[in-house]
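Let us work through a complete example step by step.
Step 1: write down the sequence.
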Amino acid sequence: MSLARTSKSWILKFGLPSKQLPKEMAASAKSMSTDSSSKVLNLETMNSNIKKVEYAVRGPIVVRAAALKKELKEGASKPFSEVISCNIGDAHAMGQQPITFIRQVLALCIYPELMKSSDMPSDAKDRAKRILGDCGGGSVGSYSASVGVEVIRQDVSKYIEKRDGGIPCEANDIFLCTGASDGVVAMLKILVSGEGKDRTGVMIPIPQYPLYSATISELAAEKVSYYLDEDNNWGVDMTELERSLEAGKTHSKPRVLCVINPGNPTGQVLSRKHIENVLKFAKKHKLFVMADEVYQDNVYADGCAFHSFKKVLHELGPEYRDSVELASFHSISKGYMGECGLRGGYMEVMNLDNGVKEQLRKLVSCRLCPPVTGQAALDVVMNPPQEGEPSYEQFIKEKNAVLSGLAEKAQLTASMFNAIDGITCNTVQGAMYSFPRIDIPDAAVAEAKSRGMTPDSFYATNLLEETGICVVPGSGFGQRPGTHHFRMTILPPTEKMQALFPLFRDFHQKFVEKYSDEKSTRMKQ
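Step 2: predict the structure and record it as tokens.
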């Protein structure tokens, strides 16, 4: 394929002048122009499942945003002075400052000479010494056990016990992970089996975090979608679960039910009753439950509270507690921590067959171990400063400041979007995102189709090019046919969020007017 042809296709699809063609596209075109038939590995011989993988959070619009940032740095003239990245839940990239105590313990673990410094508080030193004492050679540079450093697994189990009001948690049921994503992928690998209509079906919410659909594609499993109820703040509807299950049986053997609570991208917090219903449904239909609970610290709305699937399962009594198979996931990437780059997380399993647990241990051993620095940061979250310790007051002050700021922006986001005609946004009860619904004129839908784009991708591309605001199209997460959404994070600073909404309002009004006028013109002709 020639560079000229690739440039033309990019222009036709995204409506951009050739000078805005990203260098990534040019490089891709150059590589594709060479004859690949002589290569051992080419698009025909590569794993075909990988070609089905899609991950919208870092898709074409985000690539374009990165190119625009570079162009602005080089002095290019744009209708905006900066790109505002609202596409991903990366707190520190959005300006959130690290929690001091986490970084102090991490610094001590990485450079133990700091133990001699009087600038480091004694409680940070105590935690670092404990972690290093269980690391090979007393260094975080050594491998840990594949399931994680033992004292950290113990701290995770104590944290879960305290969180769930004293319900027992065994360290042997804890697998430390490279972020929660690593645990999700490992568990799905274990669960997927069979051929044809006996191939494992994985029930996932729509909208969903694209990790799930991407991993299902990679593993050649079968996706079984159930729609969240937008009219009821993205709740789980039991009639819809039953419909989804029956539909899934026509092409697969549904064995897994995934739930994200609080929700990504939808920002809902499930009530205890919702969770009870989901667990009863899972028992009735013999489904393995995967509970993604990485936003458990991020609950903002009045009347909402986080209930862990494990706690609710235990409180349903022995009939459920001793039979429903459950894996739950948590991470240091979200919450008040926002330590995305350190890649720390855990998975807890319940009622897992002992033989399968050993196979899971074998599977995770193939990647040696999660980053030990990420494990160390996780330990600080699991074992934070306690009242009376030197770092307690500063830790609580910083933690509460982050969470209260997010709560303020969650409320601000919904109210401001709902003030724009043609945009509706449910209450952001938790997590880090809003998922507004947008009315897109028929003429814009037709224009998007002519460019080979979804309507919301077309909308988001125009939004980026005209305002510098980068969001993720709702089609990347899934949505009911005929509806259009986008996901926007609530992480930018409050003042930036306040400045962002007038830009959004003006763009939306102009976009709607433009394509409404086009429709009127066509009708007159």
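Step 3: interpret the result. The longest helix spans residues 494-524.
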